[in-house]
UniProtKB/TrEMBL annotation:
Pathway(s) it belongs to: Cofactor biosynthesis; NAD(+) biosynthesis; deamido-NAD(+) from nicotinate D-ribonucleotide: step 1/1
Highest taxon, organism lineage: Bacteria
Keyword field: ATP-binding, NAD, Nucleotide-binding, Nucleotidyltransferase, Pyridine nucleotide biosynthesis, Transferase
GO biological process: NAD+ biosynthetic process
Catalytic activity: nicotinate beta-D-ribonucleotide + ATP + H(+) = deamido-NAD(+) + diphosphate
GO molecular function: ATP binding; nicotinate-nucleotide adenylyltransferase activity
Enzyme's top EC category: transferase
Gene3D superfamilies attached to this UniProt entry: HUPs (3.40.50.620)
Residues covered by the Cytidyltransferase-like domain: 15-195
Protein name: Probable nicotinate-nucleotide adenylyltransferase
Length: 203
């Protein structure tokens, strides 16, 4: 049996998947923004076994990334989980399908940064994900335009809600999308890995 964080019918839960290699303040900003502006009861930080669009070489195990994320995200409404690893998930549509079956009545919303929406058309069965649950996107420097006008923007045009309606997103019938603007973080895991590598070289 796959273990999940606590849930109950009617709860509003954000699903925030990522590599988290390592976690950083940009991730925290997304998590807190989603909790607050969508009025979520909880946010699950889902440490992926591996983004299918990224090179898995050099990716620490999900156990290592999970441990680090658990230490990093200390918040009463944030739960870190790596259930996608025992579930042997490769693509997010599998996660969504599993959760909707396993936790009926929970109001799930998919949470992502703007760069992920800009590349969403490359995700396996992205239309099925979009038809299965609402999507909340938090702006990210460098991806504002791509998220608003990129590959999937046309498809979402009628499903897009104004930011002021973000708190209603969990109750919307999908497809439904909100693109949130506000405080942004320029941080990335790539940048942190580079910084760690140069510190190693210097010492
Ligand atoms: N600074 C940020 N602002 C907004 N969203 C972010 C930011 N950093 C990461 N995210 C979002 O967090 C989720 C997990 O991202 P991920 O763990 O790949 O971090 P990353 O910094 O993009 O990593 P990498 O640099 O290794 O690609 C994705 O939805 C991504 O869009
Ligand atoms: O399902 C897909 O095709 C797919 C393609 C790219 C990314 N994802 C998921 O998107 C989330 C963010 O990934 P990342 O690497 O940008 O942190 C994570 O849960 C990935 O598994 C999923």
């Amino acid at each position: 049996m796959i273990r999940l964080p606590p849930y109950a019918p009617g709860m509003r839960i954000g699903l925030f998947g990522g590599s988290f290699n390592p976690p950083h303040e940009g991730h925290r900003l997304v998590a807190l923004t989603a909790l607050r502006r969508a009025g979520l009861d909880a946010l699950w930080v889902m440490v992926t076994p591996g983004n299918p669009l990224k090179d898995p070489a050099q990716l620490p195990s999900s156990a290592e990334r999970f441990a680090r994320a658990k230490t990093f995200f200390r918040h009463p409404r944030i739960r870190v989980t790596d259930f996608e690893t025992p579930l042997r998930v490769r693509y997010s549509w599998q996660t969504v399908e599993f959760l909707l079956r396993r936790a009926p009545g929970v109001k799930f919303v998919w949470v992502m940064g703007a760069d992920n929406l800009a590349g969403f058309h490359r995700w396996r069965r992205w239309r099925d994900i979009a038809k299965a649950l609402p999507i909340l996107v938090v702006d990210r420097p460098g991806s504002t335009h791509g998220a608003a006008f990129g590959g999937v923007a046309g498809w979402f045009s009628r499903a897009r809600l104004p930011e002021a309606r973000a708190a209603t997103l969990c109750n919307r019938r999908p497809p439904a999308l909100v693109l949130l603007h506000g405080p942004r973080s320029p941080l990335s895991s790539t940048q942190l890995r580079r910084r760690d590598r140069s510190a190693d070289h210097a010492s």
